[in-house]
Amino acid sequence: MRLNSVPWDQALDIILRSLKLGMVQEGNIIRVATLSELDAERAAAIEKANAQVRLKPLETRLIPLSYAGVGDMAGKVGTVLSSRGSVTPDERTNTLIVMDVVENIAIAEQLVNKLDSQTPQVTIEARIVEARTNWLRELGIQWGFDFTATPGTGNPTGLWFPNSLGVAGGSGAAGGQQITSGFLLPSAQATPNYVVDLPAAAGTGAGGAVGFSFGSVDGNLNTNLRLSAAEDVGEVRIISAPKISTLDNTTASIEQGVQIPISQVSAQGVNTRYVNATLGLSVTPHVTNEGSVMLEVQVQKNEADFVNTGARGDPTILTKSANSQMLVQDGDTAVIGGIFTRNQSVNRKKVPWIAEVPIIGWFFKNKREADTRTEVLIFLTPKIINRSTSIGG
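RE: above sequence
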């Protein structure tokens, strides 16, 4: 065999394998023998070690557990014991009874000290922020007139026909009621005889109006004008903050609210069922070794809307919910969802054709503008309560 530039240990290994020999290094000495002799030596050493273990006396030790259950821990401890060893769980005292040689019992205690630690406990706080703004503006107008030409009023037409003449607006007042506020002249008719009757929602607690009344000395010609305007601006902010604590990998839920009775009519009669209008939080946290919290969360908020009701007066239910899985650092706040809605509307009530004429058209129409905005944001903040004693750091 000719070898060039080959390290001696590689050369020795090649030569020994070619000759079916083996070697054992003991310190700085390398002993070469046949493979059968080396295998026999290893088998004898293993038998000697087993004999020493069998000859060693057995000891019994009680290992109490603080956080883990003995049923789960007994199987893990049994893997480090010898064939002569045994482990017996005592569920009443949550203690393991371990019997084996001293060396294996020490290994079992080290294993228990590592695994029997506090389970991370997490507090989850959710904040549901609702912001609502509404804006409403309405402009309206009412005007009318009446004119009378009769012998009784001293201004006949002078014709055989028509000898008497009367002209007046014919729309009347809204809802069949007489509206006389804002008309100043005593000679004005009790009913304004509106030609255009498109007022804004002006009255007690809403908007304002100004009225004008023009009339002749003899009271034969009267003109009435009433301008009304209303604007409504509102802002609402609602904050809901459910908060709950739970152990790692354990689902927890919290709920608060009311049950609303809803009547249902069927062939059997009127039945009443209850619908939940509640604020609820359900979460399952998982704490990672780095100190982050993996969350499987469900947030739901249902509330009754008594403004929009059904035919029987039952309120509708406004629902807002979010389901998500996310990873959040301990103590950080994350936004898990948001909903933004905006409703804009422009309504016009008008007299056809004439209302389209520039400038003059404003005397023949009513305009209503509305803008409603709603925004819902859901924030989530997890915090590990016992971080130092559970995962460290």
